[in-house]
Design goal:
By secondary structure, the chain is mainly alpha-helical. It has seven helices and two strands, in the order αααββαααα. It has one domain. Pfam families: RVT_1.
């Protein structure tokens, strides 16, 4: 059922936009306060700098039409389109005629380090978390980016994760955003750890941490610094 609001649509849109664009910044500012209050070390102390400029150097490389075609074929057919309303099915139907231009645009982006502005524009859909759709804090924003953005994203992700040296940097305990891993593998790992502890007659305690607005509060400067520390450089950086 479509939610109803007590205010004019333009007013609701403005209020929601202001909240969604500021909530992450507020969380970051709060985190900075804690860093000062508790005299925490700078994040740079946790960066990996071992041979970062040598064996781990990473550059995005141009791809072929075949690679783009394989990526498109592997994408879920029910993936939602972005603000441009260009669906995956539409792209697939026209693929023989547009695969070369798509490949050229993506390769130009990879080699020049410039991402198309139109691909950065997302349609934000507020999903109510409770029966009370107002205020904005009771909603979860879902960002719908263009299909072409997602194709380019998969190209970069594929090149990045296929680097053996990059994979060595990932924790063996990481299950999110990692090939052949998911919440299921995490559940199996935790269950196994608990059962092993029980066999050894050890007491098990679990600490669960839920980061507030985790993705919204990511610091771009910290993210870029971390990428640089593992060898992402040049135009890619």
């Amino acid at each position: 059922m479509k939610p109803t609001y007590s205010k004019e649509p333009s007013v609701v849109a403005q209020e929601f936009n202001e909240f969604f664009t500021s909530v992450g910044l507020n969380v970051v500012e709060k985190a900075r306060e804690y860093i000062t209050i508790y005299d925490l070390p700078p994040f740079t102390e946790h960066l990996n700098t071992t041979n970062a400029g040598e064996s781990l150097t990473f550059f995005c490389e141009p791809v072929s039409c075949e690679t783009i075609g394989n990526i498109i074929s592997a994408m879920p057919k029910n993936i939602a389109p972005g603000l441009d309303k260009i669906t995956l099915n539409f792209i697939i139907d026209c693929l023989p005629y547009i695969i070369q231009p798509i490949t050229d645009i993506i390769n130009s982006s990879l080699t020049q380090g410039i991402f198309p502005k139109a691909w950065k524009i997302a349609e934000i859909i507020p999903i109510p978390k409770t029966d009370k759709v107002e205020p904005a804090s009771n909603n979860c924003p879902i960002s719908l980016l263009p299909i072409l953005f997602k194709i380019c994203e998969r190209v970069i992700h594929q090149q990045f994760t296929n680097r053996p040296t990059i994979n060595k940097l990932l924790s063996t305990h990481q299950n999110g955003n990692k090939q052949y891993h998911s919440t299921e593998t995490l559940g199996l790992q935790i269950t196994d750890d608990i059962l092993n502890a029980m066999d050894c007659k050890d007491i098990t305690a679990m600490i669960l941490l839920d980061l507030s607005k985790a993705y919204d509060s990511i610091s771009h400067s910290v993210l870029v610094a971390k990428l640089k520390s593992i060898g992402v450089s040049g135009i890619t950086y």
